[in-house]
Amino acid sequence: MSSLQQAKDTKTLTFTAILHWEEDVYVAECPEVGTASQGETIEEAKQICKKQRNFI
Predict the structure, then answer these.
(1) Which residues contact 5 (CB under 8 A, 6 or more apart)?
(2) Angle 7-12-18 (CA atoms, 0-180°, nearest 5)?
(3) Are the C-beta atoms of residues 25 and 46 closer than 8 Å to each other?
(4) Of 10, 11, 13, 9, which is closest to residue 33 (Cα–Cα)?
(5) pLDDT at 38
(6) For the whole prediction, is pTM greater than 0.90?
(7) Cα gap 56→44, rounded to integer Å
(8) Alpha carbon separation from 10 to 7, 13, 27 (Å, rounded)
(9) CA of 25: how far to CAs of 11, 13, 15, 29, 38, in Å?
(10) Residue 48 contacts by C-beta under 8 Å, 6 or more apart in sequence?
(11) Is residue 1's pLDDT more than 60?
(12) CA distances (Å), 17 to each of 23, 25, 34, in order?
């Protein structure tokens, strides 16, 4: 399959990330898939949330 055909077959999904500070960590929640992650920084919380979403 050519890369052009692969690009045409690729679907883009958009998810919501709700970020907030909870006690001593940042929490990122993705309500569409029911996951939440936490990190010491906003970026770390977002990255973990993205990784979790890939397993669903």
Answers:
(1) none
(2) 155
(3) no
(4) 13
(5) 93
(6) no
(7) 19
(8) 5, 10, 30
(9) 33, 27, 21, 13, 6
(10) 28, 37, 38, 39
(11) no
(12) 19, 15, 11
pLDDT one-digit tens code per residue, 16-45:
889 999 999 999 998 988 888 999 999 999
Count the neighbouring beta carbons within 10 Å of the beta carbon of residue 33: 14
* pLDDT score of 6 more than 90: no
Q: Which two tokens stand for residue 13?
A: 């999904």
Give the residue, 31 or 55, on which the prediction is more confident. 31
Which pair of tokens denotes residue 34? 């029911």
Q: Taking a C-beta distance cutoff of 8 angstroms, is the pair 46, 29 a contact? A: no
The pair of three-digit structure tokens given for residue 30, joined into one six-digit string: 């993705």
